[in-house]
Amino acid sequence: MSLFGMTVLGSGSSGNASIIHAPEGKILLDAGFSAKELERRMEKRSIDPAEVKAVLISHEHGDHTKGCRVFADKYGIRVYMTSPVSRIAEKNSFLPENTVLFAPGDSFPVCGLDVEAFTLPHDAMDTVGFVFRYGEWKMGVATDLGHVNTLIRERLKGCTVLMLESNHDPDILRNSSRALSLKRRILSRHGHLCNADACAALEEMITEETRHVILAHISSECNNCEIVENLALQVLAKMKREDILLRVALQETPLESFFLA
After folding, report:
1. pTM for the full model?
2. Mean pLDDT across the stretch 223-243?
3. Which of 74, 146, 163, 227 could bridge across to 141 with cysteines, CB 3.0–4.6 Å?
């Protein structure tokens, strides 16, 4: 029986969602697609939506919350979010019926896992990353952040599975047709992580315990999956860690599921 693993349902500016496979059910991490699309993507990976027992929301942006209320209420699922996010959810009509509040820095049990939330520097009300622990295994997720600070390094160092944003190539972004205000927001210390900064973070966070790296939230306009993969492979080669399984999360289609235990 597979007890602990992950399925990335999709990641990018148009929607983000992943399934964390846990001993006591499945956890939906973010719900940035419509409920119907979440179900469709789960079906593609042979996941029964009725087995999802909890939803965790990292922040209030629509590419992380689009299907939150409809999906959770349909299946009677608890949704975990911070208090500021819940207030925005209520105001904007995506607050689910069954909501559990937590604060950055809290640790709490979900579906047989120990979950820890930690603050990420992003231009949202209350953005968090998560660490999931099961026995000796540690899975860390940080997909919306403008820079990597000491707290993030401490929380994500030594993960068995590390899922980290590698959003854009700064040169492609600067030369794009996007509005100057948007370019400045993305490039800011509370925007999104560029490829070079993601690769530098990998060098600091990867330890002998690390087995899987997933690079996520790739910009469709201002990045390229091949660029991201090649840069990360160079880092792994430099570290003599070609044994690590590298994946680049896609917007259009789910990645294959994988399990640690």
Report:
1. 0.97
2. 97
3. 163
